[in-house]
Amino acid sequence: MDDRQFRNAMGKFATGVTVVLTEVEGHVHGMTANAFMSVSLHPKLVVISIDERAQMLGKITESNKFSVNILAADQKEMSMIFAGQMKQEDRNIVFNRLGDAPVLPGAIAQITCEVSAAHKEGDHTLFIGKVTNIHMEDSEPLIYFSGKYRQLAKE
């Protein structure tokens, strides 16, 4: 199989959309990611997968903490900004704080974590995060499927 076939097959798995944030020396850094999942209830652990070429890899390694912000249906623009598809300079992005971590206002879930382990696998590093705090909002999620943003159908 070639790389495109693999990517297309993985795109058939509908996911939520997250923005992962971290802070280094007072500067907030972020990236859009859909490679996120829960790992364990006891202790509360999640995992994010970061490409070895991503600048975010070094930022999380340095800060040893991150937040995962699960985006609401009306936050497509935030996803595009942190995916590098829209210029951030044109937008005044305001971050809230949850404990000592930056989070995106309006996200349906904000999850702050301390890195408990990092595993290099293939061309990505998997960061296991021990959950330190959670805040949730009641809203519909932004969905990504087959290379396009989607929303849940209304019942």
From TrEMBL:
Keywords per UniProt: Oxidoreductase
Domain Flavin reductase like: 10-151
Keyword Cell membrane: no
Record bears the keyword Oxidoreductase: yes
InterPro entries per UniProt: Flavin_Rdtase-like_dom, NADH-dep_flavin_reductase, Split_barrel_FMN-bd
Protein name: Flavin reductase family protein
Organism: Neobacillus paridis
